Amino acid sequence: MEKSSTGEKWFMVAVYVFVAIVTLVILYPLIYILSSSFSSGDAIRTGRVILWPVNPTLQGYTLFFENKLILNSYLNSFFYMILGTFISVMLTIFAAFALSKPDLVGRTFLMVLFTLTMLFSGGMIPTYMVVKELGMIDTIWSLVIPNAISAWNLIIAVTFFRSTLTAEVLEAAEIDGCGNIRTLFRIVIPISKPIIAVLCLFVAVSLWNSYFEALMYLRSQKLYPLQLVLRQVLIQNTIKASDFSNMERYLRLKNSLEIMKYSTIIVASIPALVIYPFVQRHFVKGIMIGSIKG
Fold first, then answer.
1. What is the pTM of this model?
2. What CATH number is given to the structural domain containing 150?
3. Handedness of CA 178, 96, 93, 286 (dihedral sign)
4. Short-list 253, 269, 272, CA closest to 63
């Protein structure tokens, strides 16, 4: 018993050490970015920032809010995230409710069609041609319509409804005179807060972090989302000294781009960090629906 107890203690020590190392590996890049956002550009450029801010300053955040393009793109990203999340979640709920009903003819075939989109797609060029033919190039709709329904999100929602909406519930609604639309809005949606929270989190984070669709479909800078502008900032950060005749001007611009890069990353991460605590309780419940069934 003593040997077993000693072995278990050493095992737990090893587990805690391993978890601590993994935690440090995950946290250090986040701490470095946060510290760099409050450090001077010269300290970042010369590699003096390791853990704590060096020559603390708010210059990066000042540059962020003074840059009209970045600030406008930040507001654009909020708008795209809210609009896209609403459209995606509503369409997913509508489709999942229909596919969860046992009396829907051909529902298995329809689910197979949705699932196939996870394995095959038309490709980038055909998708671009479709968006162009629909007249959505250089419009906000090109960012929220093409990917409005995710097959993965739909499968999660269908699983939730099949686990929650029993035949007795649907039959009681029908006896009370509820049609499909009324059942959906009066019964289904009110009891679907966990899955709606899951879908909102998945879609909102995806929309907030996406930039490739904007890179393909948008031409006007006034429509750019924050992630696309952040990409431009990162590209501009690769400027060469040989492009400047004045070394002082080069260093000043290099320092400004360095510090603005990190401050923009921090500000861009805030929405996701703010959203998660509010949906975390529903998220855990919703994501586990159907995982233990039988």
1. 0.75
2. 1.10.3720.10
3. positive
4. 253
Q: Integer distance in angstroms from the first to the last C-alpha of the chain?
A: 38
Q: What is the pLDDT of residues 215-264, one digit of tens each?
A: 889 888 888 888 888 777 766 655 454 444 555 665 666 677 777 778 88
Q: Which amino acid is at 60?
A: G
Q: Is residue 98 part of a domain?
A: yes
Q: What is the pLDDT of residues 182-221, one digit of tens each?
A: 877 877 888 787 788 888 888 888 888 888 888 889 888 8
Instruction: List the domain range (segments joined by +) for residue 10.
Output: 2-37
